């Protein structure tokens, strides 16, 4: 419709222009052009009319669709309201179910706890039952044993009763014999007292001689103990002396090696740097290292343990000779090894 109005407006303009134009030759040419334009505009008008008819038909169809949809709208609204009601109902149901679930879960927890407690109690009761069964079985066994023992003791009682009767008869016979023996015993006591007096005088003399021998043996034992102690001390002292000699020999060898490696000038230079005398520097070089001190400590402890072991052997009960011999031989072997080491060191130095 708007295009139609525009075209009509243009036509009116063209008509107005055609009236106002001059009546010259140019007017003819312009009129031809206007006619052509008029034809074109008419064609456009026809096309626009056709389009309007098409659009009017589409509008009618759309109106029908709109009416149908408007008719469907209340139905759909009713359905939506129903669905909303259903939804709210379902939400309420879900909330109820959730609350019930929570309650059920709590109940389940409590029931599980009670179940666990009951299971524990059942286990305890089962253990008690098993223990009681065992005790009952053991008591049954004891009862059986007791009944067997009872029967045995009854048999023994009857036997003992028979034996007692026999022994009573024997006792009466023995009493008569005892009277006879008492008479003979009185005679024997008199003779025995005389013999004992004679023996007592003899035993006094033998006891005096034994006491003298015991004193002599005690003195000998004490002498032996002092000898063993002195021997062990001497052995230990000689071993320690050998160790110290070996250390001195090693130090001498090391000092000689150091002196060979270092010249007199280098020793003096080192002494001047350290601000000490050459003799002090040599002493510093001769100081033994931590390993040697540790070794000496270990050796001292071993010697101490050896002495304690020998003391224990001497204080121990008999026999201890084999153990004492082993301990002394061990120390002698150690001394032998030290002597060989010292000799080899002295040869090298």
From TrEMBL:
Residues 1-29 are annotated as: Disordered. One of its GO terms (biological process) is centriole-centriole cohesion. Keywords: Coiled coil. Gene3D superfamilies: 1.10.287.1490. Residues 1-26 have a biased composition (Basic and acidic residues). InterPro entries: CNTLN (IPR038810). It comes from the Eukaryota. One of its GO terms (cellular component) is centrosome. Transmembrane segments: none annotated. This is CNTLN protein. The lineage of its organism: Eukaryota, Metazoa, Chordata, Craniata, Vertebrata. The gene is Cntln_1.
């Amino acid at each position: 419709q708007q295009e139609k109005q525009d075209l009509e407006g243009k036509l009116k303009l063209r008509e107005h222009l055609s009236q106002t134009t001059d009546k010259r030759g140019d007017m003819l040419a312009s009129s031809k052009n206007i006619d052509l334009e008029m034809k074109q505009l008419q064609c456009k008008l026809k096309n626009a009319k056709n389009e309007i008819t098409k659009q009017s038909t589409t509008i009618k169809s759309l109106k029908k669709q709109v009416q149908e949809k408007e008719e469907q709208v209340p139905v759909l609204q009713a359905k939506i309201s129903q669905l909303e009601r259903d939804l709210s109902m379902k939400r309420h149901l879900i909330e109820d179910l959730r609350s019930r679930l929570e309650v059920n879960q709590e109940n389940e927890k409590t029931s599980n706890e009670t179940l666990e407690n009951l299971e524990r109690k059942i286990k305890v009761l089962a253990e008690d039952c098993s223990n009681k069964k065992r005790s009952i079985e053991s008591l049954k066994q004891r009862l059986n044993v007791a009944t067997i023992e009872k029967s045995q003791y009854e048999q023994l009682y009857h036997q003992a009763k028979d034996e007692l009767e026999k022994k009573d008869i024997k006792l009466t016979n023995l009493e008569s014999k005892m009277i006879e023996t008492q008479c003979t015993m009185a005679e024997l006591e008199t003779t025995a007292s005389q013999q004992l007096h004679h023996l007592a005088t003899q035993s006094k003399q033998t006891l005096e001689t034994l006491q003298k021998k015991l004193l002599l043996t005690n003195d000998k034992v004490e002498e032996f103990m002092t000898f063993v102690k002195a021997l062990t001390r001497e052995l230990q002292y000689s071993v320690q002396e050998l160790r110290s000699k070996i250390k001195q020999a090693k130090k001498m060898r090391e000092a000689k090696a150091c002196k060979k490696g270092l010249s007199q000038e280098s020793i003096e230079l080192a002494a001047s740097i350290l601000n000490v005398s050459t003799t002090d520097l040599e002493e510093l070089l001769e100081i033994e290292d931590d390993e040697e001190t540790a070794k000496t400590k270990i050796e001292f402890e071993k010697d101490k343990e050896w002495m304690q072991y020998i003391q224990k052997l001497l204080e121990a009960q008999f026999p201890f000779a084999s153990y004492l011999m082993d301990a002394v031989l061990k120390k002698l072997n150690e001394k032998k090894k030290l002597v060989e080491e010292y000799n080899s060191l002295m040869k090298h130095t």
